[in-house]
Amino acid sequence: MDTLTAQEQEIRRLRALNALLRATRNTLDIREVLRSVRDHMHSLVPFDRLGLLVAESRGRYCLIQELVTLDTLTCCPPGSIMPIAGTAIEWVFRELRSHYNGNLAEQREFLEDETLWNDQIRSIVRVPLYSSGDVYGVMTVKSVRVDAFSLEDISLLEEIGLQISGALFAAKHVAELKLHAMTDPLTGIYNRRALHSLTSPQHLTAFLDEFMIEGEWERIESRSVLVIDVDDFKLYNDTYGHAEGDRRLCQLVQTLRYATPAHQLLFRYGGDEFIILLPNASELESHSIASHIRQAAYKTGDHQGVPMSVSIGIHHDVWGDLENMIRKADAAMYDSKKRRADIQTEVGLS
């Protein structure tokens, strides 16, 4: 009876793997690959959160797609871009093997582990995805239970990784071509070209779909534009050098990501100027986000402990000409910068 049960389990496993291979063979959509893994494998290896992370060609950032099978869990917004340095992804790329942590309560060794713990994750398997012998991505399988995965489970997940690697690599290549044209090489966020493509609600909806960004935006009727500028950035560059200036900008981008967790419409407009688009956000919400950004940026110190000061301009309106909205937000930003400089001058003279 035990032998028969084992045989039945093996047949079930092979059928699921074959079904998964058929489902993913011809797709160029990372989301479809993700859903296929969930649909065909969840009954064999129960999990609560599943992710596919693929690196862009420079190996500095990865594009994240995740889903949950447990309603109480949250996951990264679709289309999120994450730096690889210091993460478990970097470890898997370097070691060329899977990584398993069965109890995040006892061991949190990577940058993202604290966040995963706070998100109720207790066990996580990271499986490498290969193409021509090189690792280009990672499949992450997570559970809210401690020691949720057995050695047999991990072995099966590694087989799944091999099965989906070909289809996922092709989907990665297509996504990468699109992403390169629309992202800033220093910070990994969207660039000016991407921003200027959003000339109508229809174009924005198409952009959200193409880059797999999801949100509750069935009808986009208004938007807020936030223009963010680093105060005295030229002086900072002249004092500490361009390499430290670049690190300063990357620090700000991380601050902007954490300050606007539900929004991935973040753009580098040029130099030290950044823009956030907030579809359907109210004026009050926009000012609240701006306040959060200012406070979070000021708490961000550099290698010398120097805090970061930013000026932010906001323009909220029904959907209109984007260039005009940016000009108005930009003017508001410079007014804010001038008012603060006047106040500092008055304080210095008093």
* Order of helical and strand elements: HHEEEHEHEEHHHEHHEEHEH
Strand segment tally: 10
Enumerate the spans where pLDDT stays under 50 for 5 or more consecutive residues.
Answer: 345-350
Distance between the termini: 91 Å
Overall tally of domains: 2
What's the helix and strand layout?
Elements: H1 2-24, H2 30-41, E1 49-55, E2 61-68, E3 80-83, H3 88-95, E4 99-101, H4 113-118, E5 123-131, E6 134-143, H5 151-182, H6 192-196, H7 201-210, E7 222-230, H8 233-240, H9 242-259, E8 266-270, E9 273-279, H10 283-298, E10 310-318, H11 322-349
Antiparallel strand pairs: 1-2, 1-6, 2-3, 4-5, 5-6, 7-9, 7-10, 8-9
Give me a quick take on this structure.
It is built from eleven helices and ten strands.
Describe what you observe in this structure.
By secondary structure, the protein is of the alpha+beta class. The chain has two domains: 2-182, Beta-Lactamase; 192-349, 2-Layer Sandwich (Alpha-Beta Plaits), CATH 3.30.70.270. The protein is built from eleven helices and ten strands. The strands form two sheets. A six-stranded antiparallel beta sheet has the order 3-2-1-6-5-4. A four-stranded antiparallel beta sheet has the order 8-9-7-10. Strand 1 (49-55) and strand 2 form a beta hairpin. It is elongated. 35% of the residues are buried.
